[in-house]
Amino acid sequence: MISAFFIFSQKGEVLISRLYRTDFKRSIADVFRIQVISNSDVRSPIITLGSTSFFHVRINNLYVVAVTKNNANAALIFEYCYRFINICKSYFGKIDEESIKNNFVLIYELIDETIDFGYPQNSEIDTLKTYITTESITSAAIAPEESSKITSQATGATSWRRGDVKYKKNEAFVDVIETVNLSMSAKGTVLRADVDGHIQMRAYLSGTPECKFGLNDKLVIDKNERGISDAVELDDCRFHQCVRLDEFDATRTISFIPPDGEFELMRYRSTSNIKLPLRIIPTVTEIGTTQVSYAVTIKTNFNNKLSATNVVLRIPTPLNTTAVDCKVGSGKAKYVPGENVVVWKVPRIQGGQECTLSATAELTSTTHRQVWARPPIDVDFQVLMFTASGLIVRFLKVFEKSNYHSIKWVRYLTKASGSYQIRF
Amino acid sequence: MSTPGQDAKFFTRGKIEEFRTELQAAEAKDKKFVKRKTVLKKIVANITMGNDMSLLFTDVVQCLGTPLLEIKKMVYLFLVSYGRSKPDQIHLVIPNFLQDCNDRNPLIRALAIRTMSYIPIPVVTDALGDTLRHCLKDRDPYVRKTAAICVAKLYTADPRKAEKGGFVELLRGLLQDSNATVVSNAVAALTEIGDRQDGVMFKVNLSIAHRLLAALGESSEWGQIYILDSLLRYVPESHSDADLLAERIIVQLQHANSAVVLTTIKALLYFMNYMDDRKRIDYICKKMGPPLVTLLSSGPEVQYVALRNILLIIQRRPTVLKNDVKVFFCKYNDPIYVKLAKLEIMYRLARAENAKEVLAELQEYASEVDIDFVRKAVRSIGRLAIKVEAAADDCIQALLDLIDTGVTYVVQEAIIVIKDIFRRYPGKYEGIIPTLCEHLDVLDEPEARAAMIWILGQFADRIENADDLLDALLDNFLDESVEVQLSLLTAAVKLFIYKSKSETTKALVHKVLKWATEEVDNPDLRDRGFMYWRLLALNPAVAGEIVLAEKPPITTDSDRMDRGALDQLLLHTGTLGSIYHKNPETFIRNAVGRALVDSPALNPHSRAVLVHLAQPQLPTTVRVAGPGPVEPTTDQQHNPETPIPPPPATTSKPEPELPKSTSSPTEDDEAGDDGDDHAPPQAKSNDPYANLGGAFGGYVTDEPRPMGSGRNGDIDDLLF
């Protein structure tokens, strides 16, 4: 299990150092600094030296590091690091060197509560916030009854929710967010297209609400046993701790008592019948050894009531590019020499429209002619009220013993960031 | 903490004396204890920065009287950092601890025992004993779950004291607790103790297993992991027990936490060894595939863990992911460790039906920037040609195109794999040899040079100017690496056998033999030189038969790990061992090995390849009778005096095996086959050439691996 937990700044300064076991001294931090932070070519998130293993996750120039001396569960350690990052974000609004330094005492409290002797313990943010707070508390001030409530929640079957939540207006917001991954060959054939979806819920509901949630989904266990139906085929789904997995397995209904506030209800994956919101048609020609000409067209693939926003194309240019002359129909395009790309930003494209860019890159002549690797064009965008998988929420029912009326809102968003790639 | 986010200013180096004065000053007129809080924060910041604050011990513990929880926690943090080094002063705080242990507030009680048990010195553990016993029976579950972990801490500090005090039985008793969090922490503590070489064994019988499963649903995600992990301590006695447990846990595959998913998979794979219903096994395999793929949408670190595990799982249970090669295609911006792991899986999943797509991807990767990745991509193209006969033509064309780019490392890598392709498909592609010969000059790496020289020698009869080419390569014979020298020697002999009439070849072989036997220090090279010389002198015709004997066909079987080793490694799914594909006892000091345990339910094929752990001489544990399961007396215990011998080499690095006569490598990966229907692997070959078939030896050495050796290396000691 975890023997030591550290947070380092980018420069290698130790911001948090907690040794859970006596098998290490604090100087173990120096080993990590030498092996990872000052090493320009780190090729693994896990480094093992002798019997000692360092696990690290990088976030905003910080290194979140766990050290172990046994055959630790690697997945558990990384999941804990991710959770720690989320806890910090929730407590401080962000996680970076400044927020860690400004709250280091609180962070010690948090990591002492969420890891005991290297074993992760209850780390539900909602519960933690009931007893690890930024307020000063005198020991005498907490009534033992109050504490018992906290402890039974922290160890209980619904450790993610307090029982005494009250709202004047009971509301639940559901966001279905899909990230499209696309890899398209230079010939325009789809090599890979799939959707990573997650359903984010913000529940502002009083008491202990029992929720039931329905989708137009169909889980495909065996791809060869495909039936005919309009349901969306999900390859897999994963649920928040609060969802009753055995009930889902038996009846396919998603039933749960939600945590208070925002949480990720489920994640899913779909690979069939993916509707690609944008089609990119690039024509890139190398003219001799001194010029490359580009003609890139974006076509929308959704109805004209919807629109794609924040569309950003990153179009690679050869390493020896000196200047690029761009002409665009809409948006702005600019050559960024540091990254060897032309960045073309279009704030909004209405459904049914198309945009084009034409550009010419001037190259210097180089002594050794190395082949240009032609990295893919990368596209980022967002389309509201559209799901690439076709998934829709059929219903969300809330039952609570006080029988209050609740309002539910559902939004859909399909986006791409860093994984919608077109080769040319 | 009074106002969030203002503490960064405390990160400045401070002097002990200043802090002491400030603490003393704070004793008077300290409204709301603001002054004390400030000094303590400065001290904690200095501990963080690695400055020794232990001299402030007596001053800091004075603050324990302050009724502010925040101050108490900082003092406790100080005690956890320095208490161990102050055995003569620690008694000062014990009354405070004990008082807190009896506080009405359960959070305070838990905090007190948690902190005390972090200070593993006799004064503290003595004082902890009775209190801990009470806390294990506390009415509040939060205190009990904290106390459970305290037992593990106590056991680490002083195993005999913990045993004599009856704490292990108390811990076993907690397995029956009504609160799931308490149960799962008790499991974690018992596991910790059981994994020690001198610890009390933790075995799970069927009734305990059912109790644990009952707690599973209400446990936190971490608790679920501890419980699922402990299920591997239960050995099913009948197929139906294995079926039932698998059915109970299979829903956990849908959990959002990837560690829950991977640990569930570990338990399922384990139980499958004890099942006999093919349909059920197939069903479970099909259920495992999608969740494994979904792990690839987690953060890159978890993706990496998942990929390294998938690589093991698909070797043992190919049905799990047989149709999913596309999801393993690399994204351009994947971190390099993810890309390298995906590449290996793509190769494993490649079959005749998807070879075209896989090849297209590999070609794409071969033009990327990362040299290591490019080389592996090129090598994978060659391996693909060897694995999938139908794709060989296209792969060769792809390799020729790559050679044409003239990028030196690409050319070298290509030539290395082409050598193996020649052996896999004799008489089919030799036409490309002239193209290869054009690139002789760029080969500066031993492996590539050796490969090219092998090609020159082996096909010297088809290469018109082989003697000229070889002669040119001989220029620096004495400076070459041994690998190249050996291949030059053999190539020269082959050339001579092909063209024994020619005076130039005669002179050439004479020159090389003379060098090898007279000028070289390496005994292998010298011996081989003498052997050839005598062979040629005695009977050149027989020499020809020997040197140019027909070689056994090359296959890709050799890079599939053997079944017994896989069964054993899969017991470590999700852990470090599964990342490095090594059993933990081979690289982690004091790590306990695992092996499948025989039982009437064990699948006969698993039994046939069962890897046994070293048997212990004597049990060294103190036996305690408790409410828990009755324990058998001997097996599986490690005597701390006798180190576990390293397992056979097969577990860390697959050795090539004779190809199975009944199945070609491609069929081997075909649908439905998960190895259960196959006879256990045949004995290792005696054929010395079989090792040459391990064409991918170099590939294996690129694998992620721990640095240094944990068992006998000195690195461990450097870390202190």
From TrEMBL, chain A:
Domain MHD: 169-423
Localization per record: Cell membrane; Membrane, Coated pit
UniProt xrefs under Gene3D superfamilies: 3.30.450.60, Mu homology domain, subdomain B (2.60.40.1170)
GO biological process, one term: intracellular protein transport
InterPro entries listed in its UniProt record: Adaptor_comp_med_subunit (IPR050431), AP2_Mu_C_sf (IPR036168), AP2_Mu_N (IPR043532), AP_mu_sigma_su (IPR022775), Clathrin_mu (IPR001392), Clathrin_mu_CS (IPR018240), Longin-like_dom_sf (IPR011012), MHD (IPR028565)
Pfam families: Adap_comp_sub, Clat_adaptor_s
Gene Ontology cellular component annotations, sorted alphabetically: clathrin adaptor complex; clathrin-coated pit; plasma membrane
Keywords: Cell membrane, Coated pit, Endocytosis, Membrane, Protein transport, Transport
Principal subcellular localization: membrane
Signal sequence residues: none
Membrane topology annotation: Peripheral membrane protein
UniProt family annotation: Belongs to the adaptor complexes medium subunit family.
Protein name (record): MHD domain-containing protein
Lineage of source species: Eukaryota, Fungi, Dikarya, Basidiomycota, Agaricomycotina
Automatic annotation (TrEMBL), chain B:
SUPFAM superfamilies associated with the record: ARM repeat
Compositional bias of kind Acidic residues: 666-676
Gene Ontology cellular-component terms listed: endomembrane system; membrane coat
Record domain Clathrin/coatomer adaptor adaptin-like N-terminal: where: 20-537
Record GO terms (molecular function): clathrin binding
Localization (cell): Endomembrane system
Function of the molecule: Adaptins are components of the adaptor complexes which link clathrin to receptors in coated vesicles. Clathrin-associated protein complexes are believed to interact with the cytoplasmic tails of membrane proteins, leading to their selection and concentration.
Protein name: AP complex subunit beta
Organism: Pleurotus ostreatus (Oyster mushroom)
Higher taxonomy: Eukaryota, Fungi, Dikarya, Basidiomycota, Agaricomycotina
